[in-house]
Amino acid sequence: xxxxxxxxxxxxxxxxxxxxxxxxxxxxxxxxxxxxxxxxxxxxxxxxxxxxxxxxxxxxxxxxxxxxxxxxxxxxxxxxxxxxxxxxxxxxxxxxxxxxxxxxxxxxxxxxxxxxxxxxxxxxxxxxxxxxxxxxxxxxxxxxxxxxxxxxxxxxxxxxxxxxxxxxxxxxxxxxxxx
Length: 179
Description:
Helix 1 runs antiparallel to helix 4, helix 2 (22-34) crosses helix 5 and helix 9 packs across helix 10 (144-155). By secondary structure, this protein is mainly alpha-helical. It has eleven helices and no strands. It has helices at residues 3-15, 22-34, 42-48, 55-69, 71-84, 86-90, 93-99, 108-115, 120-140, 144-155, 163-178. It is rod-shaped and about 100 Å long. It has a domain at 3-99: Death Domain, Fas, CATH 1.10.533. Keywords: Disulfide bond, Endoplasmic reticulum, Membrane, Mitochondrion, Transmembrane, Transmembrane helix. This is Caspase recruitment domain-containing protein 19.
């Protein structure tokens, strides 16, 4: 992927919600003006550092200007961005694409969403179904040993369920064991 294409891809990210402040943009412009090879002429640097224009406008114009100049100019912009705002440079969308370009590598953010794409209602439905099947199996099996086990489990139920519910379940189990 060329640097111009990457810059076009990152343009909205860089210009949105004041990710870059005035000082960092000025440092980047000065670096592009003073470092060899000189990317911006003195007149261009003054134009993009004009305090009368809004930061968003100046930054948008700078990025468009660099894209018109070519791949080498865009590459130097990325170098200046890395030097002056390394955290922002690492968070660029094009950097994330480059980091996960290996087809064998698992994107952990995507994997997290794939594992958690069902909500809590799905979890509660599955848990309720499993608990209902377990209770049905314990209570409705004709084997008397199972009823005894269920009675022991329900004996500890005041911790989990109310006393009234426990009494009803115990009465039901006693009726089943008499039959």
